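Workshop exercise sheet. Pairs work together: one partner reads the sequence aloud, the other fills in the structure field after running the prediction. Swap roles for the next sheet.
Pair: D.N. / O.F.
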Amino acid sequence: MSYLDTTKDVYKQAALTPDVGLCCTTNPIWELPGLKVPLIMQEMNYGCGSTVHAKDLSNSPKILYVGVGGGMELLQFAYFSRQKHGVIGIDVVDEMLEASRKNFVVAEEENEWFKSEFVDLKKGDALNLPLEDNSIDVAAQNCLFNIFKEEDLKKAIAEMYRVLKPHGRLVMSDPTCEQDMNDTLRNDERLRALCLSGSLPIKDYVNMLTDAGFGTIEIRARKPYRILDPKHYPTEELIYIESIEVAAIKDPMPEDGPCVFTGKAAIYFGEKDHFDDGKGHTLVKNQPLAICDKTAGALAALNRDDIFISESTFHYDGGGCC
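Structure field:
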């Protein structure tokens, strides 16, 4: 039995018997006018953050969500879409699809605006999405990609890239870990299925996305997630796991490499009212400008004593240098 079979079994059981502790999202349940998230969806919220961001969802986008869970984020996406088959949910586990269908019946009873036809549930594999090229505006996954081993992760990201329209967005939440994990942890199929031992360092995670062709990467949040301790896991040291929320945008790849936003900002405080670096970036005096890491490096190389560049905050909320 492969590690993917183990994963399917874990989530089959989670569909048949909701497991509140399977994943531990650090995000509160969305509270929006007229949106009521059924309790059963909250209990089956098997994610580590949120992939639903209002700024991604204007102009009635076509939305894809892979790994449906109990349907909570699909319902949230439908809140913004509100069109027949506007949201597509794909899962490889039959029992999870069936559980979501039942949960949407409850959601329809509790939300006057919602119709089950807003969400189109399909059987499918993240490694071979049953969708046409360039057909999706916003794709999302929550606590799924970290389960995959390297070659499968490359395939899953490539599939998301394939189905996205130009300038479309892949929005993700996944556990990450900056520490090395021993082989016993890495090869434990159940811990991988539980979104623990497959966690990658943020830099490696971002490189996977840019290697697939995504020209712009936004790190939107970075939060504490879990601890693996020697008393309960096969490790001799405490392993600290965080969750991150990331958007990878299918922009053309710049000649000088991708624009990766990790929450850095530049502030000019010189004698003039602004500073122009000659490369399309204007810093207004004492007004912080969000900058990608590439621009931060270029500004730092100028060795000016009137430009301050912050460290990465790992929170980026739009605007900025690109």
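Discussion prompt: The chain has a mean pLDDT of 92. What would you look at next?
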